[in-house]
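Hey Z.,

So I finally got round to the acetyl coenzyme *A thing we talked about over coffee. Here's the setup:
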Amino acid sequence: MDNQNFGIGILGIGMCLPESILTNYDLEKMVDTSDEWIIKRTGISERRILDKDEPAYKLGVKAAQRAIEDAGLKPEEIDFIIVTTTSPDYLTPSMSCMIQSEIGAVNAAALDINAACTGFIYALKIAEALIANGCYKNILLVACEGLSKVVDWEDRATCVLFGDGAGAVVIGAVENGLGIVKTCVGADGSIGHNLTIPCCYLSNVDLEKRVHENKRVVWMDGSEVFKFAVKAMAEAASKVLDESNFSIEDIKLIIPHQANVRIIDGAAKRLGVSLDKMYINLNKYGNISSASIPVALKEAVDLNLIKKGELVLLVGFGGGLTWGSTVMRWNR
Ligand code: ACO
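And the result:
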């Protein structure tokens, strides 16, 4: 990769969110909670929610179409699709195959990966390697989540946190010296039991933790995940900066995973940066898992917060438990 005479970066970016808004006041009518509690403990005011009969992949289709158009490409020019999701509509067909079919990316191979909220950063790492070694030219990454379908709407400890949405990018060759500088990813499966969504298997522990009828829903030890998150975000950011020989002062904007404003604040303090350097939109969308970073990146780009040549740091954590960070020299 070191001998390469081109950069690898984002050719196009898109997002799509459901139209329906669920506010904290709506949640007050559903569970024993309050707008005040949710804002104080999380920073979230509202989230976007899919209709019950609407599959999540449709959001991914729109986000993908927007990213491909933004890249100035045709769907036939995409040669590989990676979808990141913690909430697939089906185990098979994969969300990536469903999106491939609907957008008409007839020349693309397609697969899903799951690194929970860190999925987008894992996908960047994979896409960069596949382009660097000459396997593919234009890779579509779609981070697509329908978390409202795996949330227990009677569990106030989790239902206030999550939302639905999708973000997409096309990755390909860019001007030399621009694009992805370094990506670091990691995992600690030994603490994965702190955040679970059962699928094909239910252990006795899973059954005990979920008091309501539907057992295939999110369960989380919020304070354990919180402690991991603050430490992992700060350490992941420091690691990628060290490995790319930059300091935090070199970074124009940090796009953190949008789970809880207190987690972002804690990570900012550890990194010694002010919250102004962190792009935050979780007040509007809640935690949309792997879609949260690309959606925030798209908004930051639209707001002209990052200019060509400036450094952006993406950093996240998630179920697994996993973490990841990317330094990118903005190429557009
Ligand atoms: N409304 C009102 N009260 C509530 C609510 C609610 N929605 N939820 C919990 N409470 C109560 C609890 O029952 C508890 O009451 P008690 O003291 O009488 O027992 C009290 O509020 C405090 O609860 P804590 O869990 O200690 O609250 P905390 O300040 O830790 O905040 C939260 C909880 C927001 C979940 C926090 O721990 C958190 O953000 N954790 C990380 C979550 C996260 O980032 N998850 C995403 C992972 S990424 C992925 O891959 C999906």
